[in-house]
């Protein structure tokens, strides 16, 4: 009886771990089968997240159309993908030059995309541009550029691809957005505004496309960390959530400052496509709570954020 009591907990943990592993393996296989032979378009495929999305969808047997601003980087990505997969079970990706901020050229590029396979099954709007600074220090020209990259570019491409999906009464559109499409963070006004606009557009699009069996999904991470960056021990000072968090909790949740790794986001995008999720928020407890506080207790949210800004300015003055 004594030996059984000692072994019970380890055996239980091993059993639970095995069940979790089997569940994740089955879910991964189902996700891969959901994109097999599908025509998948990924914008800004040469970014860290774009590369990881390309990897998981290519491994799943999708027919990829990879878009990016630099031909040399697209070719390098192409070589990397075909070098690690079985050519008998995967398709060689198609490469398309696309600058998502060049709105006037997007419709012509969309025609090139459609000419690759004659249709698009899944469109992943991944391209994005960030800017940080006080409102008064950001020029109106830069504000417009951010809106072109994060709002007008994605919706222009979506509108150009949409008639093909509607005529076939099938398709999936994914917007990789940001939690800042739900709450505004100080010193990121232009970025947050563009992300709010994108969420509003795709929320409306989701409702309008339901009659055509076209699913629309948004995936919103806190922020995506640098592809090659590894967090330094205890480096939570740069967290955009620090102003929302009491010091003890800030230490406990300091990993929020590291953001979400591109690998995690890419796997979630694949799962989102497979399960046709409408909305995904990739966030740790503190930023996730901030979204709900902003919705139900806006005055409290504004007060906490303002307090964080005052503390930040005071610290800068002291230093």
What attributes characterize this protein structure?
seven-stranded parallel beta sheet, Sc_DH/Rdtase_CS, oxidoreductase activity, acting on the CH-OH group of donors, NAD or NADP as acceptor, alpha/beta, single chain, 2 domains, oxidoreductase, Rossmann fold, 319 residues, SDR_family_member_7C, NAD, globular
What does this structure look like?
The radius of gyration is 22 Å and the shape is globular. It has 319 residues and is α/β, with parallel strands linked by helices. It is built from 10 helices and 7 strands. Helix 1 packs across helix 8 (262-275), helix 2 packs across helix 8 and helix 5 runs parallel beside helix 6.
Query: What percent of residues are in strands?
Result: 5-15%
The CATH class designation of the largest domain is Alpha Beta
Q: Strand order, main sheet: write it out.
A: 3-2-1-4-5-6-7
Please count the helical segments: 10
CATH superfamily caption of the largest domain: NAD(P)-binding Rossmann-like Domain
CATH topology grouping of the largest domain: Rossmann fold
Number of domains: 2
Quaternary structure of the protein: single chain
The helix/strand series, from N terminus to C terminus, equals HEHEHEHEHEHEHHEHH
Quick one: overall form? globular
Tell me about the largest β-sheet: 7 strands, parallel
Calculate Rg over CA atoms.
Answer: 22 Å
Q: For the record, give the distance between the C-alpha atoms at the N and C termini, rounded to a whole number.
A: 63 Å
Q: Give start-end ranges of low-pLDDT stretches.
A: 230-257
Architecture of the largest domain, according to CATH?
Answer: 3-Layer(aba) Sandwich
Determine the structural class based on helices, strands and strand pairing. Answer: alpha/beta
